[in-house]
Amino acid sequence: MALAGTSKVVLGCIAFGIFWVMAVFPTVPFMPVGRTAGSLLGAMLMVLFRVISPEDAYSAIDLPIIGLLFGTMVVSIFLERADMFKYLGNLLSWKSRGSKDLLFRVCIVSAFASALFTNDTCCVVLTEFILKVARQNNLPPQPFLLALATSSNIGSAATPIGNPQNLVIAVESGISFGQFLLGVFPAMIVGVLTNAAILLLYFWKYLSVEKDQEGGQATGPEVVADDEVTSHRFTPARMSHVSSLNPDDEDCISEPIIRSNSVRSSVNENLRSRSVNSEADIQLAIKSLRASSMSHEVVEVSTVPDRKDEGASSRKFTRSASQQRSVIIEDLAPAPEMNGEKEKETEVAEKRWKILVWKTAVYLITLGMLIALLMGLNMSWTAITAALVLLALDFTDAQACLEKVSYSLLIFFCGMFITVDGFNKTGIPNTLWELVEPYSRIDSARGVALLAVVILILSNVASNVPTVLLLGTRVAASAAAISHGSERKAWLILAWVSTVAGNLTLLGSAANLIVCEQARRAQFFGYNLTFWSHLRFGVPSTIIVTAIGLLIVISY
User: Fold this and answer.
1) Using CA atoms, how far apart are residues 479 and 483, in angstroms rounded to an integer?
2) 539 pLDDT more than 90
3) Three-class SS of residue 34?
4) Which of 140, 231, 286, 314 lies at a 20 to 30 A Cα distance from 394?
5) For residue 434, what are the contacts with CB-CB under 8 A and spacing of at least 6?
6) Would you say the pTM of this structure is higher than 0.70?
């Protein structure tokens, strides 16, 4: 494709440049509107500058990718509510054998969790928990935060649902879930282990320090309370333990006691002047007062004749002892405490059983979605179907759950699709690719190395998703000229390198920024992961992991 007209090229570059600045630096001083508004601004400028027509702009939006993103978001929200990530957090500290073992677990757990639940979700829900575990064991947070961010990126490369760029590649290439998994999963395993080894070597000195001087108890699942695993997960309403006595009961009991005490004092006061009633009547009256204090109703029995109405008062004690006992027995409440406790315990057990059944249903539906993806069914509709089934089985208004969906990310993708398509129509990406393409064919080691370098640099300059949109079809077309198998291999190379490239710098991946921001804002356990501290580890790790993984992907 030749270059378009000069005005179209210039205006298209301006629109794409504004989009790039907003995407890479969302809080730029002169226009701190964020990535989502920046992508919409770039799309609008592409249409206003007539680089792309309104009809082409609508058609540029890839609805299957949007649907797949929406479905996986809803499924991830339900997994959070079902405490999946709480269990993953407990797995990190379960029978931990020290700081090095904990670091290795962070790498493994975050990698596999990202492959199934996307790297961004994994980083959101595990960052604060990892910070708390590190702080409570007097360990430096930096190694564990880097382990979470880098391992999440590497692990997300294994599946089409691991990150947004893989979603784009899976939909554009037509590679099935199973083929994608077989092609990248071995490289992911080796890459995670290599990254963990580099982390251990890099931070060996810091991790060798004893966690405390008090004997160091073994880290167990109780290191962090369940409700503190993350401040971002969504859980069903918690049921408090049933108390044997609630405040209302206390008021009902304390009031009769006070009143009976006052009556009892008046009785003692008037006993001196009493001349009518016998000692047996007095004891019977006191027993009635004690019985009334145990029930919710006060039995008011006067044992002393009032001076004003001496005759009427004396008639109150004309009853026999057996009659007064029957009155007391009738006034006493039939011991509701035991029955009430049993009813409450039954209700709590029933609610716990319902929650257990609901969680099991969420896990089974998620497992069914993964099986359907492995069987090669349409990924977008599979994810949407799983999301709708979960919403239906929740038996509540879906608004609360749907409000958790990141619609800003969906809108960002829509604007990015339009902006990138407009930039492609200027002819600049195709012209630049024609200069590089003869030297970056994947049928030679030199070509693969050059292609990897181009993807690595462009992913950190323009972000990984725009890189995939710009290079995907061109790399695939170049590889298709070699063989059909080479085309699929080219897509997998693009998926692997563009994902691992996110570990190079702090700005290379959204997961890195999530970990950085979550750690900085964490209450009581805050930590600032700087750009340079990430870069010092990211450069050697990215180069080594990318090279080792490429050897495995190419051999597939």
Assistant:
1) 7
2) yes
3) helix
4) 231
5) none
6) no
